[in-house]
Amino acid sequence: MGASLSLVPLLDYFARREFAAAGLSPGAVTLPYPGDGGEATCTVHYWASTGEPRLPPLLLVHGFGPRATWQWRCQVGPLSRHFHLIVPDLIGFGGSSFGGDSAASPPSEATQAAALASLLDALPGMKGRRVAVAGTSYGGFVAYWLARTAGAGRVGPVVIASSDLLKTAADDRGFLKRAGDGWSGVEEVLLPAEPAAMRKLLEMASCRPPPPVLMPDFILRDFIQKLFTENREQLIQLFKGITVGTDKFPVTPISQEVLIVWGEQDQLFPVEKAYAVQSSLDGKARVEIISKTGHAPQLEDPTRFNKILLDFLLATHKPDPSSNGASQ
Fold first, then answer.
1. Per the database record, which ranges form the AB hydrolase-1 domain (predicted)?
2. Residue 10 in this model has a pLDDT that exceeds 60
3. Which tens digit of pLDDT belongs to each residue from 182-225?
4. Which residues contact 250 (CB under 8 A, 6 or more apart)?
């Protein structure tokens, strides 16, 4: 009987309800697959505030793991009172897909950023509008790429949350040392295929992980099956192919105002990396460390996280003067 129990649909229902209560509606657009040069397409699923923007637009970009509704469920309510929200599933995650039967390669951060730019242009009233962007974990890599390549005329203030833009092979070795013996690579934990790896991910990602009694193997297997199985090999290639912070796309200062938010007890990307990222951006970015949280402070202490975001964005993300009377 226990093996048939699945918490995923229930948790998905509550996450979707938070989005609906915040006035967001789901949608999807089919776009040319960026950089393919052929006939491949991608479908980008998203949630967005209804209608054309009357408030300053804000793009929320999720990280590895569950779909966007799970990762931003505690933010959409408070943020929707001040911003027109666009919350997509990145390509290969959640409801977003790519390639079909073609040989399109897995998306890079450049691909993801280009798809998000095309998504923004496809939404009502958003073509050419300046948008703030907040990215958590892998979403921070995408947010940085989008902000730097699109420029300040298109992308306004940037929030980088729990995202080590300077990740190196040495960081991966440090990760495996913190994880303990028995792991062949970082992706084995970040994209778990077995209950032991899922349990380790929860332990490392959370300041207060669920006690073992609440994490029996059959529940963890269900989470793995429903959240980490589809596209797993492609996502491993995506993770191994990250280019932000490498010689292919070194981290350099950008003209936008930047906020860096980090959990003090983050074991995936240790808190000292927040200051390394700040230094790489000429030391001008504001850094906020949230105590008693791990890799997902937006979920472990949403009240504090939301206040930090709102204080920053309300001060920096002004209405686009080119918009038709949009007001904050």
1. 58-306
2. yes
3. 898 999 999 999 999 999 999 999 998 888 888 899 999 999 98
4. none
pLDDT by residue (tens digit) across 124-134?
Answer: 999 999 999 99
Q: What does the block give as tokens for 296? A: 């997902």
Task: Specify the CATH class of 7-168+247-316 in words.
Answer: alpha beta
Q: In one letter, which amino acid is 214?
A: L
Helices 217-227 and 195-205 meet at what angle, rounded to 10?
90
Is the Cα torsion angle 110, 189, 228, 10 positive or negative in sign? negative
**Token pair of 92, please?**
């290969």
Q: Which residues pair with 290 in a beta bridge?
A: 263
* CB-based contacts of 321-324 (< 8 A; 24+ apart in sequence): 322/128, 322/129, 322/130, 323/53, 323/125, 323/129
